[in-house]
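Lab notes, practical 5.
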Amino acid sequence: MQPLKIATAQFEHRNGDKEYNLSVIDKIAARAAAVGAQVVCFHECSVTGYAFARHLTKEALLAIAEPIPGGISVQQLIAIAKAHNIVVLAGLFERDDAGKIYKGYVCVSGDGLVAKYRKLHPFIHPAITPGDAYCVFNLLGWKCGMLICYDNNIIENVRATSLLGADIIFMPHVTMCTPSARPGAGFVDPKLWANREADPTSLRYEFDGPKGRQWLMKWLPSRAADNGIYAVFSNAIGMDDDQLKNGCSMILDPFGDVLAECRNLGDDLVVATCTPEKIAQAGGTRYKKARRPELYCDIIGAAHTPEQKVAWLDSK
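Output from the prediction step:
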């Protein structure tokens, strides 16, 4: 494997405005290519917008969902990738021939679709069907995987994707700054976003505290370090429907260290280089080889009825 230069981005999407969102993806992809990135990734539902979907009827959600790869949005992503000679990863609502809706995420190059993934643990709308498969694919000589938002909170999903061979896992999110039982959690006042130029300090205090980045850093570095993988985290920033999101898109190495992170209070991207040497050196790589699955395969694989809780939705 040769070193791979990856960009992760953040931007403030517009609800249901695919044309606008794709235009931003195009501009950021051009910026990423200009600084030498070979890959650029965007957040969950970056093409369509996210939280607004919880207000839609199934028919309205079907109307904004598209087939993959035949839909116009994926074809535009392919055109963007071709125009800038860069691999693009982005998310949207998918519909299949049977009328089922999925939370989709795609990886495309200028030659077409490279890989497609469906979120395993969707919750934003009851009409969305959970995905039923992991996704590991070849990208520029590397084995990569994709897991969307909540999928990464179930540690088995990250381990399974790693055991299937992924050395880089793309982790698109729209997350943080929502209420939960966790002390310090909660929404961030949208007025702070509107006033960010005059008072960036108050907004940064909220974004970086227990409502935001402080929570993220409790678990995200562990996913990278425990599995000896590069974790490429992308997140929305700004208003997502009526919720304010804090961005901080970042790339972590197999030691769990942050290589690069978006810190601007607005649309942004950062770039980091992934090297195979770090995969080989990482403790997580050694620990996976030391596993003794005969001790716990029956425990981990025991029958279980999934019960998925989402605090900010379940409390309403």
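Observations recorded by the TA: The CA atoms of residues 5 and 36 lie 7 Å apart. DSSP finds eleven helices and 14 strands in the chain.
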